[in-house]
Amino acid sequence: MSQTDPATIMKQQVARAAVAQVKSGTVVGLGSGSTAAFAIQYLGERLQSGELSNIIGVPTSFQSEVLAKQYGIPLATPNDVDRIHVAIDGADEVDPQKNLIKGGGAAHTREKIVDCLADEFIVVVDGTKLVDLLGTTFLLPVEVLPMALEPVKRAIAALGGEPQLRMAVKKAGPVVTDQGNLVLDVKFPQGIADPASLEKELNNIPGVLENGLFVGAADRILIGEIIDGEPRVREL
Ligand code: 5RP
User: Fold this and answer.
1) Helix, strand, or coil here: 65?
2) Global pTM exceeds 0.85
3) CA-CA 20 to 30 A from 59: which of 2, 29, 106, 119?
């Protein structure tokens, strides 16, 4: 993808708008994925230019940790900080109630920890991520301990889901998460009518570490769009 294609421009614009909200002296949750990567870059640039000072980043993945180091952002873990003032992260689907599906980068377990700890969780997406019903354009990621893979698949099928093991690209075998686990991408053929219940039901299955439903977690949804050839950012 070039730096000037519409999808990239929308991601850059919305990431820039979110980073503009960050104030000096704050702890910032650093999301994962291609849109969050631009946010980490812009946060680092504001820090390096002296426009911001005294920022600590809390990464949600190995990807965001590596990027933050590259852009000179001091880092901490959730154990090191009393609070996270703001988190900026992407999403794979957003419904009208601001509920999300995340985990396209298999980072949803740490993302949920960091994003839900934040006083303000700002979601950065392009307009293609907006859906009326969750689960209609994106399969729901579920992180599973490897020794429980088959029983978890059966339990998910009993809930009406159709799980498939996420396979790696440029590596033989499955995707392995930052925690050393596997990811099931689950299709719900009718979509997800009750995301709040499903989020809890999935996490109740022994062997499930975390699923990608983020219900009631997002405070603000910023949407990057191109209208009449001009990039715009609006809030849901
Ligand atoms: C990673 C995520 C990402 O935030 C989500 O997949 C969106 O990524 P992108 O901004 O690349 O579309 O949840 O686990």
Assistant:
1) helix
2) yes
3) 2
Question: Which of the listed CATH numbers 2.30.42.10, 3.90.950.20, 3.30.70.260, 3.40.50.12640 matches domain 140-208?
Answer: 3.30.70.260
Architecture of domain 6-130+216-235: 3-Layer(aba) Sandwich (3.40)
Question: Is any ligand 1 atom within 6 A of the Cβ of residue 102?
Answer: yes
Ligand 1: which residue has its CA nearest to atom 3?
A: 33
What string of DSSP letters covers 108-138?
A: HHHHHHHHHHEEEEEEEEEGGGB-SSTTSSS
- pLDDT tens for the chain, residues 1 to 236: 555 788 899 999 999 999 999 999 999 999 999 999 999 999 999 999 999 999 999 999 999 999 999 999 999 999 999 999 999 999 999 999 999 999 999 999 999 999 999 999 999 999 999 999 999 999 999 999 999 999 999 999 999 999 999 999 999 999 999 999 999 999 999 999 999 999 999 999 999 999 999 999 999 999 999 999 888 999 99
Token pair for 70:
């590259």
Going from the C-alpha of 119 to that of each of 27, 85, 102, 115, the distances in angstroms are 10, 5, 19, 9
